[in-house]
Amino acid sequence: DVKVTQSSRYLVKRTGEKVFLECVQDMDHENMFWYRQDPGLGLRLIYFSYDVKMKEKGDIPEGYSVSREKKERFSLILESASTNQTSMYLCASSHGQKSSYEQYFGPGTRLTVT
Amino acid sequence: AQSVTQPDIHITVSEGASLELRCNYSYGATPYLFWYVQSPGQGLQLLLKYFSGDTLVQGIKGFEAEFKRSQSSFNLRKPSVHWSDAAEYFCAVKTSYDKVIFGPGTSLSVIP
Q1: Contact A66, A52 (CB under 8 A)
Q2: Cα–Cα–Cα angle for B58, A105, B29, rounded to 5 degrees
């Protein structure tokens, strides 16, 4: 059974802290994605990666960075957390070379920044 | 610009009633379209997808969707809703830049 796991379901951090959100997939997928989900806005793409050590900005990359040192792991980093980054963060992965068909999602991390 | 709209923010139906969730997209070429479902506290799960061919596609959990190019729509349907269908539903389109754009979602409540 395909699986995408995220390191935490709930996280509470203080303003200015550096935050790491980890995502691991066991499907040998090439593509991995980070989204944030806010009510009424759907999912918005933060960053994505087509391969190890490769990353591309999505629609809302400001205030975030990513790391992909191994194929199965994609990390989202908030360099200095701010209250407007309080949100649900979803990681996803998919097959294919530069293809974002049928994405498989993790359960999400609900981050609260106080 | 490519976009996906879901006109209904929230829908309530009675158990056993039929369901139709609306989705409209803006995309120049032949779109790749998806419907995902998100149960409370969970990630998204793919219900069905349309790439080409038959415009009526069948998905999991008894759902189907119909692609209508003339209306730029990809509405999701189910003939008889079950209480376990209560969830958030997202329509999505794959863009020419190999990204997926998601709609804002429709929240479905089911009355027993």
Answers
A1: no
A2: 55
Of B32, B98, B102, the CB nearest to A42: B102
The pLDDT, as a whole number, for residue A73 is 97
Residue A94 Cα, gap to closest chain B Cα (Å): 11
Helix (H, G, I), strand (E, B) or coil at B33: strand
Nearest to A100 among B90, B94, B103 (CB): B94
In DSSP notation, B47-96 reads: EEEE-SS-SEEE-GGG-EEEEEGGGTEEEEEESS--GGG-EEEEEEEE-T
Instruction: Name the CA dihedral angle for A60, A66, A70, A74, rounded to a multiple of 10 degrees.
Output: -50
Per-residue pLDDT of A8-66, as tens digits, reads 999 999 999 999 999 999 989 988 999 999 988 889 999 999 889 889 999 999 999 99
**Residue A77 pairs with which residues in a beta bridge?**
A20, A65
Residue A2's pLDDT is what?
Answer: 67
Q: Do the beta carbons of residue B9 and residue A40 sit within 8 Å?
A: yes
The answer to whether B105 contacts A92, with C-beta atoms less than 8 Å apart, is no
Partner A, chain B 39-78, Cβ-Cβ below 8 Å:
41-46, 49
Do A107 and B103 lie within an 8 Å CB cutoff?
A: no
Instruction: Give the distance from residue B10's alpha carbon to the nearest chain A alpha carbon, in angstroms.
Output: 10
Closest listed residue to residue A42, CA positions, set B93, B86, B75: B93
Please tell me the distance from the alpha carbon of residue B87 to that of residue A55, in angstroms, as a whole number.
32
